Amino acid sequence: MSSLSDKIENYLRELIKRYEGEVEIKRNRLADDFNCAPSQINYVLDTRFTVERGYIIESRRGGGGFVRIIKVKLNSKNEAIKNIIKQLESPLQPKEAKGIVKRLFDNNLISQRDRIILEAAISKKSIGFNDDEKNNIRTQVLKNTLKAIFKI
Amino acid sequence: MSSLSDKIENYLRELIKRYEGEVEIKRNRLADDFNCAPSQINYVLDTRFTVERGYIIESRRGGGGFVRIIKVKLNSKNEAIKNIIKQLESPLQPKEAKGIVKRLFDNNLISQRDRIILEAAISKKSIGFNDDEKNNIRTQVLKNTLKAIFKI
DNA sequence: AGTAGAAGGTCAAAAAAAGTCAAAGTAAAG
DNA sequence: CTTTACTTTGACTTTTTTTGACCTTCTACT
User: Fold this and answer.
1) B60-98 per-position pLDDT tens digit
2) Do A95 and A135 meet the contact criterion of CB atoms below 8 Å apart?
3) Which of A33, B16, B113, B141 is most buried (CB neighbours < 10 A)?
4) What pLDDT score was predicted for residue B152?
5) Contacts by A104-107 with C-beta closer than 8 Å and gap 24+?
6) CA-to-C1' distance for A111 and D18, Å?
7) Euclidean distance between CA atoms B124 and B101, whole angstroms
8) What are phi and psi of A134, to 5 degrees?
């Protein structure tokens, strides 16, 4: 008794397997094939192809648009990064953010070079400090850069 | 399944590579080859061969008219970086910032890895968009990360 | 010099995709 | 049988590309 979402999920998993971890789809086309609302595809993506499960989604709108699903190889490093990403929810202050980067480095999860870049990115100098919105941005920056690293 | 614009872009890049950084085309002729409106060529030029990415466009109208695309060579690496950093003054929109990163990568000044990380850092997803303050933060992030990379 | 025709430029509307969000519907748990 | 969690649907938004009508600049020819 699998739901439509499950079927779409299975279908995508198959595709991803066949194409060795990376696949590109047309959202509307796929929705059409499965006879559902396009936004259902997003639902499936949002609930089943998350970072926690080791996927990254990229997309482009407009003519020739697409949705790309990338399966990330889950070694222990990525596993660890993934967990840290999951914890990045509440707005981080500069010091806290820096602490996380240090931790990543100390545990050999990112290189020295990565560390230098990340620290510069999230620094007070770059983003500023004190209001919640800035800290929010900082958290997003850290989160997205980690996702990017995770993908590489 | 890339868009027409992508195809034209690729074609032009090829040409530019083949002719060592400078190429001259007939706009209408090219549009005809690709079976599109002439203004589409301008669209491609405007969105993909921008100054941030290190291209200069020259053209002449009238009989014997042409469009010339010139890829600007960066002199010594450090010089180039310094200049790019110096130019990071006015608030950059996501696309502009991304253009700069692309250029740095295309010119072998940063690695693919750096590029992916920087793009994630300055993305709309990380910082947001539309108000001047956000764009300012974006510019600072780019500036500081580049400074960090080149330890200036 | 004056003008026709040949290029290229501009701008905005239409079209093509994808994203978001919340309401309505179902299934599962208690 | 009620409450909660998960799915499905649809209306509306945003982004990107494509098309076309009209404008400007140049060259060549009389």
Assistant:
1) 999 999 999 999 988 788 788 888 898 888 889 999 999
2) no
3) B141
4) 59
5) A104/A146, A107/A80
6) 44
7) 14
8) -60, -45
